[in-house]
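Q: Could you predict the 3D structure of GTP cyclohydrolase 1?
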Amino acid sequence: QPRIEHIIADLLEAIGESPTRQGLRDTPQRVARMYGELFSGVGLDPKDAIDAVFDEESADPVILRNVSFYSVCEHHLLPFFGSASLAYVPNGRIAGISKLARSLDLACRRPQVQERLTGQVADAILTALTPQGVAVELEAEHLCMAMRGIQKQGARVVTTAVRGEFPDGRWDGNSLLALLRRDS
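A: Sure. Here are the predicted structure tokens for GTP cyclohydrolase 1:
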């Protein structure tokens, strides 16, 4: 934290501000604490958040829609945020549903790109539960695109990841993605 505080004070000076000005005096400490929270997933495995697993013989899809998330773009260190939908077809094991959202949160808490984030969440579910298959879809607005550069507010990026073998033939990646997108 002290290293981040020093870097932020230097940054403020580099842009022509005074880190000792009343409104900025505590900013380096606040930013250091914020970075500690925003990047608390660095070095952790999102599958470890899926730690409540139960034996269950269901082979019908489990779907979790409209889970809000935020992360930080690794290219500009600006936020991107949106909504995630997750689905898996159990193969004798199910997870406590909140654990899927925790896995997403953990994967978000590191410098990220949305494409990798989507795959990391799908891989975490696949590894933790060994389901027949998994589908993950993220839709997000990127402030690096809205605030700077092309400045297109409201544009949304959609990424998907599908994993698994779907051996029973009742479901496949396309049918899971269709369930994620279906209006409730």
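Q: Anything worth pointing out?
A: Residues 56 and 92 are 5 Å apart (CA to CA).
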